[in-house]
Design goal:
Number of helices: 23
Number of strands: 7
Pfam families: Sulfate_transp
Low-confidence stretches: none
Main location: membrane
Strand content: under 5%
Keywords: Membrane, Transmembrane, Transmembrane helix
Helix content: 55-70%
Radius of gyration: 32 Å
Order of helices and strands: EEHHHHHEHHHHHHHHHHEHHHHHHHEEEH
Largest sheet: 3 strands, antiparallel
Distance between the termini: 83 Å
Subcellular location: Membrane
Number of domains: 2
Mean pLDDT: 82
Membrane topology: Multi-pass membrane protein
């Protein structure tokens, strides 16, 4: 075995210097010790190499833009993304203003919510086609919380009777604080759920449940907008039977001029929407009906409708962006249940749309990263006075159909909104609110078409039909928050029911084939001599084991 002798000392030549001396000491290294050191060096190198690769994977996973932007094909994608971004941005503007009314905040905050989150999603999102921004269902849920936490009665100037005067400026300022705090909490919840890999939560919000819930939300939104469409001023109600209360309250004398403007805009928008649907293959881009009706701003300004005819208008829209502000954390405890519901519903809507487009165009989306992306969009944007956002069905369809290929389209849409906020936001000040109500009502048509699910589910699955109906009626009658809880509870009960009452069958062979079918449903299926083939379409566990044995005995020995 070779042994390396120790170097006790090395001395420099006396001719050079008698004072210079090198003295080195080290232990004797045998072969075993040398191999151990060599292995430590190899393991250390492998460790640092793996850590580097892992760090790179984490960074690319957290910032998906790094995976596709360096190889972005300008000639193939840029023109389509520009057209798509402009088209989506044109829709963002009026919808942002309109959905701010649903969120119970001044319209300009809808524009902020159409800029910051959309910009951030470009960097963190994994879907190439969904359009992030304001959405009717989420806005309505936020508005319900804002009205509950900052009702008109808190800002009454003269007493609390029916003719009280409300300090609208103070009320709106407080509602903005509540909404911003809510958005911060929603972002934190979504981000934490994403880090904990809870992207599978969307599985429990089944398609019938979501479609029934969003249809019910469309009913709530429609009822809430009737007062703007008719020019009627009523209190805003939330909770059980709120739809009934509002319906009775608006059955009064309306502002005729407001009603005419609203109906004309509604009919026109419906006509444009129908044209876009009929000729979508021939039109290079959809006709921007929502921007066209904004021309009514000029008519309203020229005829001074606000003063002469009592038509309610959008009002003051400050030019430029507001400085960042820390949210009011003191209201978090009272907002947490609502924030959790909004976080889950918002993610469910976004991931559903993302998966549809991903399947159509042949790429994949990461549910956990989408949770993180939405969480960051909501959390970071909330410091700039926004409310919670998610994907919009109508804008996503436009962004995809007009040639959008990547998240660059969303980036361009956000820049268009920024241009309006910074430069020409004041143009929208004389815009009648009834026009915004008409925009909202027409955009809800797609949700109301989900009523067609009822006959389809009746033919395919009675249980899923029951989930759809319970989700719809519970959300309409009890409110969106309680309705969602009831719907999810009922959906879980159906899972238990399916395990308790599975479909059981005895299988028989189709002659001259290797196929086996239920002998009760197929006359040609013949049981094998001396063999019983029993099939149950559920897993066996403690809660259904006795039922499984009973069903097996009933099928195998029916007369026993």
């Amino acid at each position: 075995m070779p042994v390396f002798p120790p170097l006790e000392h090395v001395t420099a030549s006396e001719e050079l210097s008698a004072t210079l001396m090198y003295h080195v000491e080290r232990p004797v290294l045998n072969e075993v010790k040398r191999n151990e050191i060599f292995m430590l060096i190899v393991i250390s190198l492998l460790f640092f190499r793996c850590s580097s690769e892992k760090a790179k994977s984490v960074v690319f996973g957290f910032l998906p833009i790094l995976t596709w932007l360096p190889s972005y094909p300008l000639k193939q994608y840029l023109f389509g993304d520009i057209v798509s971004g402009i088209s989506a941005g044109v829709m963002q503007l009026p919808q942002g203003l309109a959905y701010a009314m649903l969120a119970a905040v001044p319209p300009v905050f809808g524009l902020y919510s159409s800029f910051y989150p959309v910009l951030l999603y470009t960097f963190f999102g994994t879907s190439k086609h969904i359009s992030i921004g304001t959405f009717a269902v989420i806005s309505l849920m936020i508005g319900g919380v804002a009205v509950r936490e900052a009702p008109d009665s808190m800002f009454a100037v003269n007493g609390t009777n029916a003719s009280q005067i409300v300090d609208f400026e103070a009320r709106d300022a407080r509602r903005v604080e509540v909404v911003v705090a809510m958005t911060t909490l929603v972002g934190i919840i979504q981000f934490v759920l994403g880090l904990l890999r809870f992207g599978f939560l969307a599985i429990y919000l089944t398609e019938p449940l979501v479609r029934g819930f969003t249809t019910a939300a469309a009913v709530h939104v429609s009822v809430s907008q009737i007062k703007y469409l008719l020019g009627v001023h009523t209190a805003r109600f939330n909770g059980p039977l709120s739809v009934v209360y509002v319906t009775f309250l608006i059955a009064r004398i309306t502002n005729v001029v407001t009603l005419i403007i609203g109906l004309v805009c509604t009919v026109f928008l419906y006509f444009i929407k129908d044209l876009n649907e009929r000729f979508k293959k021939k039109l290079p881009i959809p006709i921007p009906g929502e921007i066209i009706v904004i021309v009514s701003t000029g008519i309203s300004y020229g005829m001074v409708m606000s003063e002469n005819y009592g038509v309610e208008v959008v009002g003051k829209i400050p030019t430029g962006l507001l400085p960042p502000k820390i949210p009011d954390f003191s209201v978090f405890p009272s907002l947490f249940p609502d924030a959790f519901a909004i976080a889950v519903v918002g993610f469910s809507i976004a991931i559903s749309l993302a998966k549809i487009f991903a399947l159509k165009h042949g790429y994949s989306v990461d549910g956990n990263q989408e949770l993180i992306a939405l969480g960051l969009c909501n959390f970071m944007s909330s410091f700039f006075h926004t409310f919670a956002v998610t994907a919009s069905m109508s804008r996503s369809l436009v962004q995809e159909s007009t040639g959008g290929h990547t998240e660059i389209a969303g980036l361009l849409a956000s820049l268009l909104v920024l241009l309006v906020v910074v430069a020409i936001g004041f143009v929208f000040q004389p815009l009648p609110t009834t026009v915004l109500a008409a925009i909202i009502m027409v955009n809800l048509l797609g949700m109301f078409k989900q009523m067609k699910d009822i006959p389809a589910l009746w033919r395919t699955s009675k249980i899923e039909l029951a989930i759809w109906l319970v989700s719809f009626f519970a959300s309409v009658l009890l409110g969106l928050d309680y309705g969602l809880v009831v719907a999810m509870g009922f959906a879980i009960l159906t899972v238990i029911y399916r395990t308790q009452c599975p479909k059981n069958a005895l299988l028989g062979q189709i002659p001259d084939t290797g196929l086996y079918f239920d002998v009760d449903e197929y006359e040609e299926a013949e049981e094998c001599s001396g063999i019983k083939i029993f099939q149950s379409n559920t897993s066996i566990y403690f809660a259904n084991s006795d039922l499984y044995v009973s069903a097996l005995k009933a099928k195998v020995r029916p007369n026993a």
